[in-house]
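Note to self: the last two entries modelled the partners one at a time, which told us nothing about the interface. This time every component goes in together.
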Amino acid sequence: MSGWEIHPWLLRWDGLAVDQLRRTESVFALSNGHLGLRGTLDEGEPRGLPGTYLNGFYEAHALPYGESGYGYPEAGETVVNVTDGKVIRLLVEDEPLDMRYGRAHAHQRELDFRTGTLRRRTEWESPTGRRVTVRSERLVSLTQRAVAAIHYEVVPSEDVQLVVQSDLLANEPVEHDSDDPRVAAALNEPLVSDFAHAVDYRAVLAHHARNSGLRMAAAMDHELEVEDGVRTEMRAEGDLARFTAAVDVPAGGRLRLVKYLGYGWSAQRSVPALRAQVEAALAGARQTGWEGLLAEQRRFLDDFWEVADIEVHGDDELQQALRFALFHIMQAAVRGETRAIPGKGLTGPGYDGHAFWDTEMFVLPVLAYTVPEAARDALRWRHSTLPKARERAEVLGQAGAAFPWRSISGAECSAYWPASTAAFHVSGDVSHAVAQYVNATGDTAFERECGAEILVETARLWTSLGHHDQHGGFRVDGVTGPDEYSAVVDNNVYTNLIAQKNLREAAEACDRHPDVADRLDVTADEVADWRKAADGMVIPFDTLLGVHEQAEGFTSHAEWDFDGTDPDEYPLLLNRPYFDLYRKQVVKQADLVLAMHVRGDAFTPLQKARNFAYYDSRTVRDSSLSAGTQAVLAAEVGALRLAYDYLAEAAFTDLHDLHRNVHNGLHMASLAGAWVGMVAGFGGMRDHDGELSFAPRLPPGLSRMAFRMGFRGTRFAVEVEPGSVTYRIVSGGPLHTRHHGVPVVVSPDEPVTLSTPDPPEPPQVRQPPHRAPARRTPPGG
Amino acid sequence: MSGWEIHPWLLRWDGLAVDQLRRTESVFALSNGHLGLRGTLDEGEPRGLPGTYLNGFYEAHALPYGESGYGYPEAGETVVNVTDGKVIRLLVEDEPLDMRYGRAHAHQRELDFRTGTLRRRTEWESPTGRRVTVRSERLVSLTQRAVAAIHYEVVPSEDVQLVVQSDLLANEPVEHDSDDPRVAAALNEPLVSDFAHAVDYRAVLAHHARNSGLRMAAAMDHELEVEDGVRTEMRAEGDLARFTAAVDVPAGGRLRLVKYLGYGWSAQRSVPALRAQVEAALAGARQTGWEGLLAEQRRFLDDFWEVADIEVHGDDELQQALRFALFHIMQAAVRGETRAIPGKGLTGPGYDGHAFWDTEMFVLPVLAYTVPEAARDALRWRHSTLPKARERAEVLGQAGAAFPWRSISGAECSAYWPASTAAFHVSGDVSHAVAQYVNATGDTAFERECGAEILVETARLWTSLGHHDQHGGFRVDGVTGPDEYSAVVDNNVYTNLIAQKNLREAAEACDRHPDVADRLDVTADEVADWRKAADGMVIPFDTLLGVHEQAEGFTSHAEWDFDGTDPDEYPLLLNRPYFDLYRKQVVKQADLVLAMHVRGDAFTPLQKARNFAYYDSRTVRDSSLSAGTQAVLAAEVGALRLAYDYLAEAAFTDLHDLHRNVHNGLHMASLAGAWVGMVAGFGGMRDHDGELSFAPRLPPGLSRMAFRMGFRGTRFAVEVEPGSVTYRIVSGGPLHTRHHGVPVVVSPDEPVTLSTPDPPEPPQVRQPPHRAPARRTPPGG
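The predicted structure of the combined assembly is written out below.
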């Protein structure tokens, strides 16, 4: 039982379930990509894990090694729970509101995808029998990036004294997973107080992180609406600022408090400058006011859903999950502004708050076609880290730039190089996202300013990483592809195809912008080398089996003993050593299959079918990154029922907590995988060589699906019904595309409806024992 | 300038050279394989690094990981500097003897390979002008394993008051290399006092190591010979026991002190039992007396040199180095008695005191043919660790037993699995040593009791590690061979050939001892599987280049940019990342070349010549394990001058401190490499399939060489002169062997002299730039 009530536009949890709090806090997290608040209860306790995050604000700590090596990163980075401004405590006749005591007659929390707010309604009876109704509504502004606000209302059922305490609280005790004493020490009270000030209903606290030295400030202001006779107090000291209001409220009366929060951080700015910044944010928020913030939020989201919504008929729970996914992806990114989009967004401390390659390969495709400014900003972050990526390449003895496996600042933070440093595809993935964004938007300014430089520096990496063999083939040896159950292999197909595209995109960008190429010291010889490397790229193929080798030698390796593997031994990495996983034909996550999605132009339909069958039977999906991609290829080869099951797995990863770690935050790439599964899977959307094309097919079980996208300023909808598809312009100019290979031009006000050809006969596909996706049966569907 | 004076039977350092102390302490270390004393000055200071080691006594500490993984070892082990009994301080009229003050008119230390003692003679004048001659002689008994003794004599040149303080001192401050705070904490005062007792001239201290819980005791007793009027005191407390003697010595008189030391440790025995043990050792030592101990030592060494000596004419420095090497190998092992032979012996704390595979592949061959009981005892240690090796195999999902990469107790202690866990050849190496020892001695009792079980359990490991491919070939994928600049590769030739031999030896042992096979639950099917795997073993060969591939794909990898590598960038692992080393054709140490030595039967002469030329030009010799093996193959393919250079490099690794780390202890495997280079290189000794054969060739520069060995109870000498070789029985029955392929029988009292054929035309061999071995020019030779 998931505990979630099904609604098309909101997500509601009824009741409390203390043991599920940490999980629901992740799901109910609010963010705008700059500031993130986990969905903790207003009163702070009971709680799962408090969490207030500022994108890019981290603490540093030494990375430990039992045996060190040249070029190993020495410093780790971990996201910090910053000053918590969410806390509003209530005392009812000196009895603190605490859901674990007294009696809850009603308790609901709901996340509304259209208002962009988290609402809470509680009817509570204190242990001494006093009854109050508490309503709160919380938002992190999607329009004012430094601002959050909480509307808090208490209605007692009889005359009662109420005291509210509204806090800014730094260095809350937080549990860590790390068993390294140095990491734990770094995260135990990481904030050092620099400044505390309170006046009237307003307070500011400023801190810096002990080791990283990054500075932050948080401020709060309040509007209080109560009966006469209220007595208030505001104090600030070190790690705590507290606004207290005490008042007698008669039956039928109410206490209404609006709390405005302003946040900021900087590596450069002084404490007074940071204080000024958060006070200015507060002033703006108060000027807008609570209702104004609500209205801005609604306008923003109406616009978002106009370009991003996905509708499905026949599976209401999936409908909800898809909007939930889109809402969170948007939230994680929209105001990130040259900061990374972490793997968990700002919903929890999982992965230490690091960003990975899956942002570029899963999250940015969604954004590029829905909120392209957010995709651009995330790529600007990558661009801003180029100096660190160049430095890393140099340490590694390579030319160009090598982007990190995991990072907050842009510096490599992984302590296990075979699964990180060796995963050079990261740099190709970033370039893929650059080319995709530029193509989807036509944003030449970005390409000239940032994109081309990324393409060029990563192309340089590839020519330095690879070499031409005796037969003229261009080999990239000793690298790790997306599949984390293989490492340090020669000629990983995914890596080589991504590198091939990277090299060609770089060459084309230099052709398009010769002045930019000049600025980057690109010579004609260099461009020729890129093209030669791309043309010679080695793509291992097992002629005996008629399938591609995920990497050289893969298909000669021993098969995994799936029959000797118990269902509870998954994920395998927790129960089997890397050495044994690496050398056998067991695949953690889509690797060759991902190559067949993003570089589908490099495979024939027959190869796709054979490869998909071969690799699907060896893929255990121990990663949340996999199901969405498997849905795409399953749909392409005609296995629509299977594709639907994979899609559902991606879509429900977080809501059903399939990996049992949602308590540490949501899986952004898996949420994006749901979009990818719908749009690239059942919609058949591809953008090879910059051409947008579709091949929609309705999965069994759905009577209709529709999705929206933007492409070079045009917003359009693709509406799929049994047997036919309608392409419709929502706004902007005409759309040139393909429908199942046939060129189509869709003009404004002239929707085009086309029939759907029959799907191909799918290959025989089997998953490893116990690893088939759950058969999707919509509740009541 | 090495600082060493050249003598055929001893090693002398004249003068002090405080900055060289730590290095000379390693070279002057005394040991019997159970107890080791670094060659510190009697008075304790100045010092490089104090060091008293008990083989197998270690402290445990957590192994840190930035990113942990299933099956990673959690506990590290580090050799501990135990209670120091070497210290004898002298006060000359209240001025402590300290070589840094006053004036040394003479100071010599010398290690005597025939007496097995370290002698010191110092003429010192105190800052106030008092002059004394101090002579000391120190031994670690080669016959009484728990015993060491020091003969200490002071002769003043005028009437003077002398005070001697003789200590047992625990928890001396020692510097550590570790940058891990947990390791440093574990090694900072690792000993906890359990017991201290003193009576008369005798004292005992008992301690245990804080984390490992291992217990140890040290005891001392004294004989004092002085003028009348001596005043003595003995006290013991916690970490210190001190015997003090004060006496007025007239001009022409002397103070003579004999200090006896007894050591013991146990994981099981109680403190009283340990005390009894070390007191019994002392009683035995005193009963034997100083002169008796000297006589025993001499008898033991006379016997050793009878079977082990190597003579060379024409290079006196090499002559000294070869005896130095043999002396230290013997010392490191002779009374080890079911403990490991660490990589540094008991000469220093390098490698944490761990034993590695090179003990089996380099040190045990020397011992098997000279002190076979020591080889047997070292293999008994491996046998005693089988439960841990089985457990490790099980954690790794394999059958049989997997011996550790590095260990003191037998448990894997490496924190970097690609270079350790994956190096499964370790288990093949152990089996190789078992078969070699059994063959060299005919020790059937050992084979039945221990050897067969090792062979069987490692054979089981191989059949579980490998698999038959579609073509019937038996593949061993994802392993690391000896070359540490490659890792986690498929079908490493060395590994596969060692595994092949392992599988066959196991099968043959089971045929020989069916009752033992029964006891080990070996079935006929299992033996058949071993033979099938051995017969199908994949040995990668590049037909285009006509050379073996070190591992599959090796010859397709990029060449290392040697021209772009500065001489000071070696060793490369300190200046280049593993990822780049692993994926290129750069070899740290003999790997395929080692295979061509120990499995020379698997290669044709032409293959050996081509392979040697190919790999020698890609081998940078960043490991001290390599030169000896390169000498062997260089000699075999006819490159005798080059072989001599490699041999000299192996022989002088420690005396010339070529790797600049002798301060942490000697390199036992490199010392053994000198023997291997002489006996297997210029002697051409091989023992393929149990047949002993020789193919001696005198290198240019030597006018004569002779070496001695034992084989199944027969001791014999091989004397090589220009153009001819004489085989002579020293003791025991006749010897069946081959001379350059021709069968020979050598009978007692009937030496056989045979002529030497011309060497083959060597291939063109070049080393990487800056990595050729130094051209050997004997000083004055």
